[in-house]
Amino acid sequence: MSNLPKERLRVGFVGSGFIAQFHLKSMVGVRNVDVVGVYSRKAENRAHFSAMVTELGLGACKSHETLESLLRDESVDAIWILSPNYTRLDTMRTIHAEVKAGRSRVFAVACEKPLARTIAEAREMLRLAQDAGLNHGYLENQVFSTPVLRGKEIVWRRAASTTGRPYLARAAEEHSGPHEAWFWQGDKQGGGVLSDMMCHSVEVARHLLTEPGAPRKSLRVKSVNGTVANLKWTRPHYADQLKQRYGSGVDYRNHPSEDFARATVSLEDEEGNELMIEATTSWAYVGAGLRIQLELLGPEYAMEFNSLDTGLKIFMSRAVTGSEGEDLVEKQNAEQGLMPVLEDEAGIYGYTDENRHMTECFRKGETPLETFEDGLAVVEILMGLYRSAEIGETVRFPAPELEDYVPVVARHIS
Ligand SMILES: NC(=O)c1ccc[n+]([C@@H]2O[C@H](COP(=O)([O-])OP(=O)(O)OC[C@H]3O[C@@H](n4cnc5c(N)ncnc54)[C@H](OP(=O)(O)O)[C@@H]3O)[C@@H](O)[C@H]2O)c1
């Protein structure tokens, strides 16, 4: 695009579900952006989403019956891809075709995590974006979470600069299980919790270990070692619970995907120093709600963050009754007792700064901090971890055999 910077970025959403609504709420804290269109399959979902845009004062959002109609609307500059993982590539193919044929003026695209289900798919996502001349951003919110922004800045400025770079990053993300059937279906989602949540942990850990301003290639992945397990949801009682909740398409007695994953990623910096990422994720954690734990350790310092260790806590006695909700914290499991409350979830999880960053980069024609290339690099690590878990061995990088690798639980991807 030669006529950049634009004063405002006009965004069209693909998807109107859980994460689309989270992004919307966060955009109240972003300047220079309007939400001008939405496409998802069901009219009632689009109508609900458009009404939210109006209520939040984020623009006049038109509901589009087809993706092509959204893309051909001349008021749309950029697309946020927020639909399920199995719809990614088709969505990107349509964007590519419309832009290449000159039917769409879209010049930028942002895509939710994980970029794709396999390396082959992720590579194709990147190729399509590049071939259509699109600026591209990978939506990894944890990189933009306020404790990560602040913690990384302080660690590197005060401690690493005087005593040496950090060498170990630990990341964990756990909750009690996803909210829609497709997440539990290995072929649709791309795997189980390793694909769904380890993508966050490895990328935020890599980001914390990377010197501010240095490119991704300043750290080289040497090897990965992964473990996957089924701790909770294959137990007959819980497998039946899943089937009741999500229908016969989620059959954890016969076709489970993992609900626990552990990773060790060994890296090297440009001077040959050894660095380590330790990550663990699960869908088998029943605490107050979603728990993100992060640590960054160096020779004379340590940073730590726990998303449930909130400053704000509210106690409710057993006399307090009411409906179940997620109004205190994401993936909330209780409404009584001493409950942690995240007073600004969109900010602390990173959506506000993420959307501010992507809006500003796209508006000005600059390359975002996280691009589809980063999304591809994350998928490479995830596939290495799945392969490692499958063969029971460490996988050394580069690993060309991963190019056409599909995790065991996703092998019926068509
Ligand atoms: N960053 C994070 O922490 C985070 C958290 C949650 C999810 N995510 C990611 O965000 C994506 C969506 O997850 P979600 O939780 O929002 O899922 P969700 O609640 O199931 O919502 C999916 C949305 O996509 C729409 N959709 C389904 N098929 C579509 C298609 N072919 N074309 C266009 N829209 C379609 C659905 O609406 P219709 O039925 O009307 O089509 C729905 O609005 C996933 O990739 C997930 O990994 C990221």
TrEMBL record:
Domain Gfo/Idh/MocA-like oxidoreductase C-terminal: 177-395
Pfam families to which the protein is assigned, alphabetical: GFO_IDH_MocA, GFO_IDH_MocA_C
One example of a Gene Ontology biological process annotation: NADPH regeneration
Entry-linked InterPro entries: Gfo/Idh/MocA-like_OxRdtase_C, Gfo/Idh/MocA-like_OxRdtase_N, NAD(P)-bd_dom_sf
Keyword Oxidoreductase: yes
Gfo/Idh/MocA-like oxidoreductase N-terminal domain: residues covered: 9-133
Name recorded for this polypeptide: Putative dehydrogenase
Organism per entry: Pseudaminobacter salicylatoxidans
